[in-house]
Structure formats: structure tokens, C-alpha cells
Amino acid sequence: MIPKGKLIIIGGHEDKGALPGQNLTVHKNKNQKSRFEILGALITKIPRQHHVIEVIASASSIPEEMDEMYINAYKQEGFTHVGFIKVDNAADASNEEYLTKIRYAHAVFFTGGDQVKLIAALSETPLMAAITKKYYSDEHFIVGGTSAGAMCMPEVIITGGIIGAALYKDDIHIAKGLGLVKDVLVDTHFIKRGRFARLAHAVTLNPSCLGIGLEEDTALLISEGNKAKCIGSGMVVLIDGSNITDTNISTADHSTPIVVAGLVVSIMAEGSRYLLKERVFEAIHKI
To answer: How much is the average pLDDT of 136-157?
Structure first.
């Protein structure tokens, strides 16, 4: 089934403006079109002043601070109806008030923090079922997420691991995600935190999944569960393991470094488009 809604997955550290009373110095490169370009991608044909956004900060250890920050950012972008859904456990995710909020929302946004915490609170709950149903049935609905909120969206997710000079067995932890997008693995803060090896390891373990490494202040807008467009100031690194020719990953013990041959690496930048299922770019020369 092809989803009618859209996903926006953000690599973290997207420009959210300043809290009231704070000074903000913005450093833009030539590819940045707007201070709120990524958050502003949560748009439909509905005028922004009528656009209802619900923010879920379950993954964050400081959700109250997140509340104020996102309210301020969205207001500066022209969105005035911003609500918050407080989900700390599965019981919260059955709250009828929250289910009603999802029915009337035009967008849901997952903040950063701890992807394990977010999955524990939302996985296989009525709230997540409501979000998924609307994502598949409503062409104007958008599900957004940044950092941990982006990493949680696929069926298979990275929950942690060790980033070292070589890859070793059990250096990475994989778990079941929220299932909003299939056959991909997402990692965030990708260049800033040196996570290439971690994502390559995850892809080698799950070669049917395309690795998506999102740099900070950079996002993919995904429509029809397949058509991805790069937004923002940084790059998106794609790691394709579908043509791996050789690897020792299934036989290596805890002291043997993992070797892999045949990974294909591609780089997306502002405006580039990619088909996730077909694993091909759409007309790079036209960007």
C-alpha cells in the first residue's frame, strides 16, 4: 500500500530560531534559502495560520524546553496552532484526547532525544496506529522527525553502538522501529559525529535496507514512501548494500574486524531527488 501522506526526516540541529530573550547568530551557506527551510517544509495547501501541528517530545529528556523552542520556531514560520502530546508510556499512548488530536492534525513532529525511549512509548499503541492510518490515507498529512525522531521512523532502526577505528561483531544495536518507511535505515548528525562506519555496519547486516545518513540542518522529504528530495544546507549520504560481493560479517568473532566489499555510496545535496526503492537519482544534471 502506497502512503498518501509525506515524511520529513531531519538530521538534527535544524534551525529552530531563538527562545524569547535569546540572541541568535545564523551562519548560512549559499545553499540555505531560509532560516526555517526545514521546519517550514511542514506545509500543505492549507494556509499556515490554519495548519495544526502536534509535537511529540517523548524522546527528549527536556520536553518542556522543547515545547517552548518549537512553539517559537513555528510561530516565526507562520504556524500558529501548535500543540503537544505528552507520551511517556504505553498508557499515555491510549489517551482518547491524544487520538482526537491526531484526527484533527495536519502534521505530527517527533523531536530528538533517545530513540529507544520513543519506541518504548509509542510502538504498537493506539496513538501510533492513528498516526500510521492517517499517514497512509490523508494526502495532506505530514509526519516529521528530527535526530532520534527521524531514526525511529523505519521498520528497522539503529538504537546505538560503538564507533571505533574498525568494525567488530556486536558493535551496533538494531531494533524494530515505527514502520512508517520500508527498506531503509536512518542515521543522523551523520558527518558531525562521524557515523559512516556505524551506518555501513547496519547496512551490511541488513543489505535489503538502504542506508540514509542525514547531516545536521539537512532533511529528506519523502512522498509515496519512495520519492525523496533533499532539503537544507548539508548532505545526505546513501549507502547501498544490495550489491555486496563479499563480507565476513556472518562468521567474524568478537576479535575479528569486519570486512565488506561492494557497498555503493552516493551523496545527495539541496534539491536532488532519489527513488528509494529503485535506488536511482532523478536527473542530477537538472538540479
So the answer is: 95
Rounded Cα distance between 3 and 225, Å, is: 6
- SS3 category, 160: strand
Confidence of residue 89 (pLDDT cuts 50, 70, 90): confident
3-state secondary structure (DSSP) of residue 165: coil
- Measured between alpha carbons, how far is residue 239 from residues 192, 210, 214, 242 in Å? 17, 6, 11, 9
170, burial (CB in 10 Å: exposed 0-12, middle 13-18, buried 19+): exposed
Q: What global pTM score does this model have?
A: 0.89
Mean pLDDT score of the chain? 87
Q: Write the secondary structure of 256-276 as one string of H (helix), E (strand) and C (coil).
A: CCCCEECCEEEEECCCCEEEC
Q: Over the stretch 163-191, which tens digit does the pLDDT of each residue have?
A: 888 999 989 999 999 999 999 999 999 99
Residue 85 has pLDDT above 70, yes or no: yes
CATH 3.40.50.880 correct for 6-286:
yes
Residues with Cβ within 8 Å of residue 141, at least 6 apart in sequence: 4, 5, 6, 105, 106, 107, 108, 134, 135
Neighbours of 98 (CB within 10 A): 21
Residue type, 116: V
Confidence of residue 58 (pLDDT cuts 50, 70, 90): confident
Side chain identity at residue 282, one-letter code: E
**What residue ranges do the domains of the chain occupy?**
6-286
Cα–Cα distance measured from residue 195 to residue 212, given in angstroms and rounded to the nearest whole number: 11
Quote the CA–CA distance of 115 and 59 in Å, as a whole number.
6
